[in-house]
């Protein structure tokens, strides 16, 4: 019997830590940072329309140092973006 790795979808409401854990499962190269492609896969798991565009906008808004990925220090900006623009309910 083979076990498949499944993607855990976020609940209706989640804490910032739960959001980070959910997002971490899309960190394909395990570098602790989220790229646009990894963020796109996360949004696709939510069945979001135009996930490529939403990922691009989220990265543009959250990537303060403009290095092309969302670092641990920038995750707060991504949380804010998710609450304001992706209709996610995330609390402290």
UniProtKB/TrEMBL annotation:
Q: Where is the EF-hand domain?
A: 14-49, 54-85
Question: Which is an annotated Pfam family here?
Answer: EF-hand_5
Q: Which InterPro entries match?
A: Centrin_CML-like (IPR050145), EF-hand-dom_pair (IPR011992), EF_Hand_1_Ca_BS (IPR018247), EF_hand_dom (IPR002048)
Taxonomy, superkingdom: Eukaryota
- Please provide the record's keywords in A-Z order: Calcium, Repeat
The record's section on SUPFAM superfamilies has:
EF-hand
Q: Does the keyword Repeat apply?
A: yes
PROSITE patterns registered for this protein in UniProt = EF_HAND_1, EF_HAND_2
Q: Which GO terms describe its molecular function?
A: calcium ion binding
**CDD domains noted in UniProt:** EFh
Read off the Gene3D superfamilies from this record: EF-hand (1.10.238.10)
Q: Which protein, by its recorded name, is this? A: Calcium-binding protein CML39-like
- Which lineage? Eukaryota, Viridiplantae, Streptophyta, Embryophyta, Tracheophyta
């Amino acid at each position: 019997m083979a076990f498949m790795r499944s993607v855990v979808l976020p609940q209706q409401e989640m804490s910032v830590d739960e959001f980070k854990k959910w997002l971490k499962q899309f960190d394909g190269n395990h570098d602790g940072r989220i790229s646009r492609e990894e963020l796109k896969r996360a949004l696709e798991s939510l069945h979001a329309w135009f996930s490529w565009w939403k990922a691009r906008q989220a990265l543009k808004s959250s990537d303060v140092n403009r290095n092309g990925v969302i670092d641990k220090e920038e995750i707060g900006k991504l949380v804010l973006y998710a609450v304001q623009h992706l209709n996610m309910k995330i609390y402290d």
